[in-house]
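INFO batch 0412 | record 1 of 1 | parsing
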Amino acid sequence: MKIAVCIKRVPEMDVNFKIAASGKGVDEAGLKWDMSDFDGYAVEAALQLTEKLGAGEVHVISLGGDVVQETLRKALSMGAAKAVQLKCDAVPYDAFAIAAALAAELKAGGYDLIMFGKMSIDGANGVTQFVVAELLGLPLVHACSKLEIAGGKGTARREIEGGGELVAFPLPAVVSIDEGIARPRYPSLKGIMAAKKKPLEVRPAQLGEVRLTVEKMELPPARAAGRIIGEGAGAVPELVKLLQTEAKVL
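INFO prediction complete | emitting tokens
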């Protein structure tokens, strides 16, 4: 079983973002970066599959400048066998351009399974895996919450409104991973040391045509400050009045 997991380096999200001077992106000054959450689930699920089968290896692939090597090394320290950086100066917003570069790398890899997180937690577009599957002519199962591989076939569970659905698919295939399938393991000291000796190959990204760009990015309007109108039962009449006259919700 040879598995590729496509991962993305994203900023940690529990901060107050600022718009960059260009007005077309976030100000990256002071941000901390890590592997996108859903991509971490995908790496962990891939490792568990090979461990359960007792054979195979996991490769991780990421697009971007040399800074993505830190994210790739993290995946190697978790247990991936090999990493590939598809090098480009800037990661385009256009999912087709990104997918074209990934498909060009994946096409000759001989992978049984190609895995993604169901979306990146920064852009939240969630479309790259669909385009990669189309370009490679492979079936796609999106947002798997459970995944099993046996006898050259796969089965997956997807959570849907009010229930779940179980789907079967042949290999090779593309799958994207939802939360709940597995919590990413913490790299051990042994894993971190081993990762330094694992192969990390760097190749120019064969990006597709960029047809979609961000023209403007803006933050939501600031919320008005709250107002304390009193405490206890004595504040209730005024609260009701304000809900009727100002908020107009009663």
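INFO post-check: The chain is about 25% helix and 25% strand.
INFO record closed
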